[in-house]
Design a protein that fits this description.
The complex is a heterodimer of chains A (about 170) and B (about 270).
Chain A lengths: L1 E3 L5 E7 L2 E7 L5 H8 L18 E4 L2 E4 L12 E3 L12 H8 L9 H14 L5 H8 L10 H14 L10
Helix pairs in contact in A: 2-5, 4-5
Chain B lengths: L6 E4 L3 H11 L3 E4 L5 H6 L7 E4 L9 E4 L2 E5 L4 H6 L3 H4 L1 H6 L6 H4 L4 H7 L5 H9 L2 E5 L7 E5 H4 E3 L2 E2 L6 E8 L6 E8 L6 E9 L3 E7 L6 E6 L4 H11 L10 H17 L4
Parallel strand pairs in B: 1-3, 2-3
Antiparallel strand pairs in B: 4-5, 5-10, 6-7, 6-10, 8-9, 11-12, 12-13, 13-14
The chains are: A alpha+beta (about 170), B alpha+beta (about 270).
């Protein structure tokens, strides 16, 4: 049985975006704070810190989860994927590029969480309807976009990944 | 919005969990999926001395059919139940309810038993357990009285309050299996899909009577049995007033009562889509 006393930092080791990372965490430290403050991956944003807004959503062993509702010590040995892992080298990944193209973000605070949900969603739902996308997005609050651009971006990436040619862009 | 300091334990067996609970009692909280407890800890509505993470106890994660019950272990996640291929066949009410339980991002970690033991009055899973007449299994470290089975009607005692004693672990929840001559229906209204329900209604429609349950209005799920030969609208009005609705920032008491009448009318009179 693992036991960690209060106020006692212990070592947490996890796989962040494919690389093994180690940091110190007290038992009460949230996974979101561990990723940002210990590992320096500040792409993950924190909005409400009680699971409602969805900004801190990351993928834990591939499934979208709220990083603010998980302890850092619970992530020991697990694979954590954040928005930084969605890049294609130095370039934007296809999902990120589609968000840019469709103006699916304005201030961008909620976007990292939405991208992580979309990443898992598209893996499991390769041919989503607009209703499917909106249902998936109901777990996120975005106060800038009205969601229209986000829905368009997700549907376009789904079509692209199925091999449909992209629409000719506006001049 | 950060938890207060606590000791953390991650036991690997049911016996270790029960020993920790016996030693620590009301100063301990059990952590499974964390989708209710972590929010409570972050808001410091609870400041336990010990958090017992049962995620490492292998024999608490299962979906099984035993006798005429669907039995779900304490570590089974809501997403696992929703993805269970036999859900619509054995528990059609749960098949209708599960897409309304939180969002897919919270169902990925949240457990079925966790939602039930948290006992939020607007949560869909406690309502389902109450309407179906299910039960929970509570275990404690005791040489003779180590295990008891509590019906939903006795388990839910008020706002976030249940019959669970501080040294008990809710190890299993049991939903009665679907019966062929019964129809199972569910509907709710919330500020956005996946949020807490303003009113949630679940109904089991049998040949002779209807069992109707409401969540989101009273301090716990409330169940009323309505014979099929009664006037539904009169019965729904009586039911709506019996719930003791109160006004809050989201909806007035009158609006909640009207939702019970309107949603109830649709639920009881329209064919299942």
């Amino acid at each position: 049985m693992t036991r960690i006393a209060a106020n006692t930092p212990c070592r947490v080791r996890l796989i962040l975006n494919g690389k093994e990372r180690v940091g110190q965490a007290e038992s009460r430290m949230l996974l979101s704070d561990f990723i940002r403050h210990e590992l320096g991956a500040t792409g993950t944003h924190l909005g409400c810190e009680h699971g409602v807004c969805g900004a801190c959503t990351v993928r834990v062993d591939g499934v979208a989860s709220r990083a603010c509702l998980m302890l850092a010590v619970q992530a020991e040995g697990r694979r954590i994927d954040t928005v930084e892992g969605l890049c294609d080298g130095d370039a934007l990944g296809d999902l990120q590029a589609a968000f840019k193209r469709h103006h699916a973000l304005q201030c961008g605070f909620c976007t990292a969480g939405i991208l992580n949900s979309c990443a898992e969603f598209l893996d499991k739902t390769p041919e989503p309807s607009e209703l499917d996308v909106r249902d998936m997005l109901s777990g996120h609050l975005c106060r800038c976009t009205g969601y229209t651009g986000i829905v368009a971006a997700v549907l376009e990436v789904a079509a692209q990944r199925r091999g449909a040619p992209p629409e000719t862009s506006h001049v | 919005m950060k938890p207060a300091a606590f000791d953390y334990a991650r036991p690997e067996s049911r016996g270790e969990v029960l020993k920790l609970l016996a030693d620590t009692g009301s100063d301990a909280r059990v952590l499974a999926g964390g989708q209710s407890l972590m929010a409570v800890l972050n808001m410091r509505l609870a400041e336990p001395a010990l958090v017992i993470d049962i995620g490492g106890v292998a024999d608490l994660g299962y979906i099984e059919i035993r006798d005429d019950r669907l039995c779900i272990g304490a570590n089974t996640r809501q997403a696992e139940l929703l993805a269970w291929p036999e859900l619509a066949e054995h528990a059609p009410l749960l098949a209708r309810v599960m897409p309304w339980v939180g969002h897919f991002q919270t169902r990925n970690r949240g457990t079925v038993c966790g939602s039930i033991t948290h006992a939020d009055p607007s949560a869909e899973l406690p309502l389902s357990l109450a309407v179906l007449g299910g039960e929970v299994v509570l275990e404690r470290r005791h040489w003779r009285r180590g295990r008891r089975v509590v019906p939903a009607a006795e388990f839910f005692q008020g706002l976030l309050t249940t019959a669970r004693e501080p040294d008990e672990l809710l190890t299993e929840v049991r939903f009665p299996l679907a019966r062929a001559d019964h129809d199972y229906r569910f509907t709710e209204v919330a500020m956005r899909h996946g949020d807490f329900a303003l009113v949630a209604l679940a109904a089991v429609i049998g040949p002779d009577e209807i069992v109707l349950g409401a969540g989101g209005v009273a301090d716990r799920p409330v169940v009323r049995r309505i014979p099929r030969d009664r006037d539904f609208d009169t019965e729904l009005n009586i039911f709506a007033w019996s719930l003791g609705a109160e006004s809050d920032a989201h909806a007035s008491a009158a609006y909640r009562r009207q939702l019970v009448r309107e949603l109830g009318h649709k639920l009881l009179t329209q064919a299942t889509p």
